[in-house]
Amino acid sequence: MAKPSLSYAGDPKLCALGSVIRARRMELEMSQEALASNSGVDRSYMGGLERGEHNPTLMTLIRVASALGTPASELLKSADI
């Protein structure tokens, strides 16, 4: 299981991004497990991402956005980043 980012866990921007990802996933009625699988990440990592515990790489963010059917830029914009 991936450990939270010691430097960034709980950062307001990561929490906002995680909330946007969770909200979009819920809109699509997609399970966290399905989103993780479609994004190529572990389910526990996805949970941490939604809680703002992980600082995703650009490629991870792009894969998550793609699995959600939205551009990564839209996720960032919705999170006011």
Description:
The protein has a single domain (12-78), classed as 434 Repressor (Amino-terminal Domain), CATH 1.10.260. It contains five helices and no strands. The longest helix is centred in the first third of the chain and has 16 residues, at 12-27. It has 81 residues and is mostly helical. It has helices at 12-27, 32-39, 43-50, 58-67, 72-78.
- Beta percentage is under 5%
* Gross morphology: globular
Which fold name fills CATH's third level, the topology? 434 Repressor (Amino-terminal Domain)
Question: Alpha-carbon distance between the termini?
Answer: 27 Å
Approximately how much helix is present in the residues?
A: 55-70%
| Overall SS class | mainly alpha
Rg, nearest Å: 11 Å
The count of DSSP E runs of length 2 or more, i.e. the number of strands, is: 0
The CATH homologous superfamily is termed lambda repressor-like DNA-binding domains
CATH class descriptor name: Mainly Alpha
Give the count of structural domains.
Answer: 1
Please state the second-level CATH architecture: Orthogonal Bundle
Q: Give helix and strand order, one letter per element, not per position.
A: HHHHH
Count of alpha/pi helices? 5
Biggest sheet record: none
Residue-averaged pLDDT: 94
